[in-house]
């Protein structure tokens, strides 16, 4: 690994294809024999620092259509938090199911799971049938893994019956020194970004693009009013940028003055600090409070000059979903993913059916959507929202920050990169966008 790291840092990328790939590497894992370690504990008390381990693991065999990547940096997503606390179920069930699919996928069914669904790094090897990528290429990876043997996935790869999220429903993820991906997950690394910056948009940027912009999601248009929950967070911060870039008006919901300030830095003007204004959409565990929903809707109209949201960008789930359905305009759209506060959504269907509203489920992005989202980053139209960076050994703490909502934007992890700030190829473009690139830093 040291030879590989040294060659990349010395910019000897033509040489990496001739270097020996070690038969083991360091990766962040959860272990199958620990899946009951948090049994009976409330979700909030489950600690990723106890379940995420930095282990020495065997390098997987490279198969057709696959690539092994030297991972310079990765990032934390909420799916890593779910994996680390074994909710809503252990990811080892995913790995067992995938391992039964074919002889090629059997290698994913292991008593440990190398996690992580983002990366920026360098191609080391490609398997048979790979022609677009070669050793030495600097890449980022999106997290969509599909087999594409069924006709169902050929119009929209997210519809493939064997669609999975790499590093969550497959093994050998990006929080490691090496990663195994399908070659069609690879995209060019944006030249003006560092390794850790380039690694951070992947999952959330693509997810927000499909959810808000794509015709497979809400199909946002110019002039739309878009209510964005968690607008300074990993997912919401990209939704806010897409709304502003696309001629829409974001109404940003946050939970602190610091998060409100971040939204202002992105260019948003209409902001609701739900903590300061004391919104409590549930009167108890079983009953929502319609008065709070009406108060929230009134506040939105006050900010917009009387407009209700054309689109509600939903991802908190149970805690907010009833309010989201209520406040959307007649004929409006609630587009939902993630459900980080709970999967069982409760809402008054009268406000949906009698007002002709739509609920759209959205999950990650297809290949084309992920490529378009990355292209916008490469062009400097959308910017990373990286706030803090940890070492690979500190991944547990990084995941704990996300689990406890003690973070802003995205939390990065250095893998083979020995320090922050490396990997920039286009310093002129970087200088042009430096303020935007750094606006989440240190907050």
Task: Give the helices and strands, then pairings.
Layout: H1 2-9, E1 24-31, H2 48-51, E2 53-58, E3 66-75, H3 78-85, H4 92-99, E4 112-114, E5 119-126, E6 138-141, E7 144-145, E8 164-165, E9 178-182, E10 186-188, H5 195-199, H6 202-213, E11 225-229, H7 236-245, E12 249-254, H8 257-266, E13 270-273, H9 290-304, E14 311-314, H10 321-327, E15 333-336, H11 349-353, E16 358-361, H12 367-378, E17 386-391, H13 395-403, E18 410-414, H14 427-432, H15 434-437
Parallel strand pairs: 11-12, 11-14, 12-13, 14-15, 15-16, 17-18
Antiparallel strand pairs: 1-2, 1-4, 3-5, 3-9, 3-18, 5-6, 6-10, 7-8
Helix pairs in contact: 3-13, 6-7, 6-12, 9-10
Describe this structure in words.
The protein is α/β, with parallel strands linked by helices and 443 residues long. The protein is 28% helix and 20% strand. The chain has helices at 2-9, 48-51, 78-85, 92-99, 195-199, 202-213, 236-245, 257-266, 290-304, 321-327, 349-353, 367-378, 395-403, 427-432, 434-437, and strands spanning 24-31, 53-58, 66-75, 112-114, 119-126, 138-141, 144-145, 164-165, 178-182, 186-188, 225-229, 249-254, 270-273, 311-314, 333-336, 358-361, 386-391, 410-414. The strands form 4 sheets. Strands 3, 5, 6, 9, 10, 17 and 18 form a 7-stranded mixed β-sheet that branches. The protein has a 6-stranded parallel β-sheet with strand order 13-12-11-14-15-16, sandwiched between helices. α7 links the parallel β11 and β12. α3 crosses α13 and α6 (202-213) crosses α7 (236-245). It starts with a helix and ends in a 6-residue tail after the last helix. The model has no long low-confidence stretch (mean pLDDT 96).
């Amino acid at each position: 690994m040291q030879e590989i790291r040294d060659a990349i840092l010395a910019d000897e990328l033509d040489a990496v294809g001739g270097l020996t790939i070690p038969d083991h590497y360091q990766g962040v894992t959860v272990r199958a024999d620990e899946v009951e370690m948090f049994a009976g504990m409330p979700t909030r008390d489950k600690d990723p620092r106890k379940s995420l381990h930095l282990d020495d693991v065997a390098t997987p065999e490279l198969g057709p259509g696959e690539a092994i990547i030297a991972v310079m940096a990765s990032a934390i997503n909420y799916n890593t938090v779910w994996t680390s606390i074994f909710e809503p179920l252990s990811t080892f069930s995913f790995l067992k199911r995938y391992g039964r699919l074919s002889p090629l996928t059997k290698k994913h069914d292991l008593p440990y799971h190398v996690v992580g669904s983002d990366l920026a790094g360098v191609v080391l090897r490609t398997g048979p049938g790979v022609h677009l990528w070669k050793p030495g290429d600097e890449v980022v990876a999106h997290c969509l893994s599909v087999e594409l043997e069924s006709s169902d996935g050929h119009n929209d790869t997210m519809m493939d019956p064997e669609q999975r999220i790499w590093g969550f429903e497959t093994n050998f993820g990006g929080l490691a020194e090496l990663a195994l991906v399908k070659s069609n997950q690879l995209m060019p690394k944006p030249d003006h970004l560092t390794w850790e910056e380039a690694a951070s948009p992947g999952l959330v940027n693509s997810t927000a693009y499909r959810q808000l912009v794509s015709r497979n999601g809400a199909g946002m248009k110019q002039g739309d009013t878009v209510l964005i929950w968690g607008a300074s967070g990993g997912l919401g911060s990209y939704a806010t940028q897409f709304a502003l870039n696309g001629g829409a008006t974001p109404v940003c919901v946050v939970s602190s003055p610091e998060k409100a300030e971040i939204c202002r830095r992105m260019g948003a003007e209409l902001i609701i600090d739900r903590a300061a204004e004391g919104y409590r959409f549930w009167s108890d565990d079983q009953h929502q409070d319609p008065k709070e929903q009406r108060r929230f809707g009134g506040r939105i109209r006050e900010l917009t000059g009387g407009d209700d949201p054309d689109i509600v960008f939903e991802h908190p789930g149970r805690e907010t979903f009833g309010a989201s359905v209520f406040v959307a305009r007649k004929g409006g759209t609630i587009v939902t993913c993630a459900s980080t506060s709970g999967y069982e959504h409760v809402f008054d269907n009268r406000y949906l059916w009698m007002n002709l509203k739509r609920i759209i489920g959205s999950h990650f992005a297809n290949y084309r959507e992920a490529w378009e989202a990355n292209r916008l980053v490469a062009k400097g139209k959308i910017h990373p929202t990286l706030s803090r960076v940890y070492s690979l050994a500190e991944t547990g703490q990084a995941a704990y920050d996300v689990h406890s909502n003690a973070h802003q934007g995205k939390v990065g992890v250095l893998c083979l990169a020995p320090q922050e700030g490396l990997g920039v190829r286009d310093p002129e473009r970087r200088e042009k966008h430096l303020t935007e690139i750094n606006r989440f830093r240190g907050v």
